[in-house]
Each structure stands twice: as structure tokens, then as C-alpha cells.
Amino acid sequence: MTEGPDIPAAPEAPGSPNAEMSFEAARDELASVVQRLEAGGLSLEESLALWERGEALAGVCQAWLQAARARLDAAREAATD
User: Fold this and answer.
1) For all residues of the chain together, what is the average pLDDT?
2) CA angle 58, 63, 64 (to 5 degrees)
3) Cα–Cα distance between 45 and 22 in angstroms, integer?
4) Which residues contact 31 (CB under 8 A, 6 or more apart)?
5) Which of 4, 8, 3 is nearest to 64 (CA)?
6) CB distance 49 to 36 below 8 Å
7) Residue 13: its pLDDT value, please?
8) Please, what sign has the CA dihedral across residues 34, 35, 38, 40?
9) How far is C-alpha 38 from the chain's CA centre?
């Protein structure tokens, strides 16, 4: 079986809060951010800060998912060679 292209294990999301953050950590923190926003009772500034954090965390999750898709595609490609 041939080796596939090198695919980074930890994707970097532009503007992410922590490019080395695991998918699970980003997902869990994002869920917490959503929960806090849905609970309400925050000032506009706090809500905006949480929204921005949530967007950055969603970017981290998306980068991980895209990297996982690329790895799967590379593995499928290698398996058919």
C-alpha cells in the first residue's frame, strides 16, 4: 500500500483562538458558549465577545473536520492504487 500525501494532524484555522486546540476541546467550549448566549442576561459587550469566541471555535472545529475529510479521501485514494 502506498503512502498518501502528508496531511497536518492539527489544522490551523485563521483567527482561531488556539490553532493547537483539539476538536473535542473546541466543540465542548463552543457548546458552553452557545449555552451561555441562550441563557441570556449578558450585556451587549459580553454577548458580542462570546459570539466572536464562538465563531473562532466553530472555525477550529471546521478546520479539524476538513482535515479529517482530506485524510479519509487520501486513504481511499491510496487504497484504490
Assistant:
1) 83
2) 100
3) 27
4) none
5) 8
6) no
7) 44
8) negative
9) 21
What is the distance between the alpha carbons of residues 17 and 9, in angstroms, rounded to a whole number? Answer: 17
Which tens digit of pLDDT belongs to each residue from 10-39? 445 444 445 589 999 999 999 999 999 999
| Rounded distance between C-alpha atoms, residue 50 and residue 1, angstroms | 46
Interatomic CA distance for residues 9 and 20, integer angstroms: 10
Q: Where are the beta strands (DSSP E) in 1-81?
A: none
Do 1 and 51 form a contact (C-beta atoms < 8 A)? no
* Distance in angstroms (rounded) separating the CA atoms of residues 53 and 72: 29
